[in-house]
Amino acid sequence: DMQLAIVELQAKCKSKDVDMRKLDELHQMKTIDLQEKYKASIKKRACSSKAICKQLQDEIQHKEEKNQELLQDMAGLRTEMMRQTKEFDERELKLTQKLEQARLEIEKLKGHHKTA
Prior knowledge:
Order of helices and strands: H
Strand content: under 5%
Number of helices: 1
Structural class: mainly alpha
Distance between the termini: 168 Å
Radius of gyration: 49 Å
């Protein structure tokens, strides 16, 4: 009777050992699966981050190019403004000289008028 109980216990222990091994294997498979999913998730996020980074770099480059164009336009406008200012100053000087000439002639005529 005791022998039978021992054999039954040994059989139960072997069965439990088999169950434990199966659980260990299952646990390992789940762990590996989770690690793979985690790696894939990180890779996906890294790719997404790289894409966002690239997009931002492209936007920055575009804005810098636009900024450069605007600076060139401003320089062109400044040059044109200086040219027009110089032209205006020259015309103003000529007109001032003509005005002075006319004033002198009027003074001369007044002088002639008085003597006549």
